[in-house]
Amino acid sequence: MSFRQAKKFLVIVISTLMLVATIVFNFGTTSAWAATLPAPFTSQFIAMNRAEAMTKNLEGQAQEALGNVTGDPRDQMMGKAKQVESQMHNAAEDLKDEIQLSNRAKAVAKNVEGKIQETVGNVTGSRKDQMMGRLKQTEGSHRNMIENVKDGIGDLFN
Fold first, then answer.
1. pTM over 0.90
2. Neighbours of 141 (CB within 10 A)
3. Which of 9, 26, 73, 85 stands 20 to 30 A from 124 (CA)?
4. How many whole angstroms separate alpha carbon 97 and alpha carbon 19?
5. By the 8 A CB rule, do 84 and 78 touch?
6. Does the pLDDT at position 131 exceed 90?
7. Among residues 59, 71, 85, 87, which one has the least CA distance to residue 5?
8. Cα(154)–Cα(135) distance, integer angstroms
9. What is the Rg, in whole angstroms, of the alpha carbon atoms belonging to the chain?
10. How confident is residue 127, by pLDDT bands cut at 50, 70 and 90?
11. Quick one: which H or E segment has residue 151?
12. Residue pLDDT, tens place only, 103-122
């Protein structure tokens, strides 16, 4: 495997891990730190869905088989790398499917995110972080009130 191929594979692995971390720790908020990453790091992985991952897996299997037939170690390694990339995309999709937060959980997450950002603003003296933190806490409270109303309406019909 050449240096360029190894580098590309490593970028794919790191980017996928970043995507998974974004999904797990930031709950899909657009104001999260991962949302500010340059597009080349995230766009190719966000765009790849399960069908494309399956296609990549089949392509990798074919390339590995070709490498086995011809005895070319480069094709064997590239085929395996494509299969691993496909598995990582599928794992990220599985994780994304499992982490479907309820609206109540989203409200709590927004409130916690706001408290953290306000605290960071207080420590660093950043007025912007303080204000954005308060704003997120207010948004979380409003979402919580909406969920309370929904629960109340649901109780009327039950």
1. no
2. 14
3. 26
4. 14
5. no
6. yes
7. 85
8. 29
9. 22
10. very high
11. helix 127-157
12. 787 788 888 888 888 888 88
* C-alpha span between 129 and 135 (Å, rounded): 10
Short-list 53, 131, 49, CA closest to 87: 53
Q: What is the pLDDT of residues 38-55, one digit of tens each?
A: 444 444 444 457 778 888
Nearest to 11 by CA among 56, 42, 34: 42
Provide the token pair at 11: 């970028």
* Residue type for position 135: L
Place of tokens 């590995």: 64
Q: Which residue in this structure is represented by tokens 């190894």?
A: 6
Residue 24 in tokens? 């797990």
* List of E strands, the chain: none
| Separation between Cα atoms, residue 45 and residue 95, nearest integer Å | 14
* Residue 96 to residues 14, 50, 135, Cα–Cα distance (Å): 17, 12, 27
Whether the CB-CB separation of 45 and 92 falls below 8 Å is answered with: yes
Q: What is the DSSP letter of 109?
A: H
The token duo for 32 is 């999260």
| 67: its two tokens | 């490498």
The enclosing H or E element of 1 equals none
